């Protein structure tokens, strides 16, 4: 009996020591939530591929599809921080860096016409 408990706690310790800290959070969403999140994320000029909205941040990435919100980061703590701070995109862009968010400035190709 004692051997079983010690081997169990030993393997538990081993699993905790070598367990990878998953930095992926996924949540299924409704159509209304998709529309609200898309409107919010579009303020940061994300990449769009069909129905997918991909926002690249300094410490992670947010991928929004019609059925799922996915946050990918180096570890779970950073992913949770990104998820918590997403609503700050509703604030003026000058405040975003203080919450670890960023925005990309997309420049269209300028055409120079000679006359």
Task: Describe this protein's structure.
The chain has 115 residues and is of the alpha+beta class. The protein has a domain at 24-90: TATA-Binding Protein, CATH 3.30.310. It is built from 3 helices and 5 strands. It has a 5-stranded antiparallel β-sheet with strand order 1-5-4-3-2. 13% of the residues are buried. The model is unreliable at 1-10, 13-19 and 107-111 (pLDDT under 50).
Q: Label the overall shape.
A: globular
Give the name of the CATH superfamily of the domain at 24-90.
Answer: TATA-Binding Protein
In the predicted model, the low-confidence regions spanning at least 5 consecutive residues are: 1-10, 13-19, 107-111
SSE order, one letter for each helix or strand: HEHEEEEH
Which class best fits the helix and strand makeup? Answer: alpha+beta
The CATH architecture name of the domain at 24-90 reads: 2-Layer Sandwich
- Fraction of residues in helix: 25-40%
DSSP strand content:
15-25%
Strand order of the largest sheet: 1-5-4-3-2
Number of strands: 5
How large is the radius of gyration?
21 Å
- CATH level 1 name of the domain at 24-90: Alpha Beta
Question: What is the mean predicted local confidence, pLDDT?
Answer: 75
CATH topology of the domain at 24-90: TATA-Binding Protein
What is the helix tally? 3
How far is it from the N-terminal to the C-terminal residue, by CA? 92 Å
Largest sheet: 5 strands, antiparallel
């Amino acid at each position: 009996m004692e051997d079983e408990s010690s081997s169990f706690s030993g393997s538990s310790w081993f699993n905790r020591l070598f367990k990878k800290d998953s930095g992926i959070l996924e949540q299924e969403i409704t159509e209304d939530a998709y529309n609200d999140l898309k409107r919010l994320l579009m303020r940061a000029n994300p990449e769009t591929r069909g129905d997918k909205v991909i926002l690249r941040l300094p410490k992670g990435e947010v991928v929004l599809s019609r059925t799922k919100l996915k946050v990918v980061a180096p570890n779970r703590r950073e992913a949770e921080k990104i998820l918590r701070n997403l609503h700050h995109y509703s604030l003026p862009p000058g405040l975003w860096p203080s919450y670890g968010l960023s925005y990309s400035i997309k420049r269209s190709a300028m055409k120079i016409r000679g006359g």
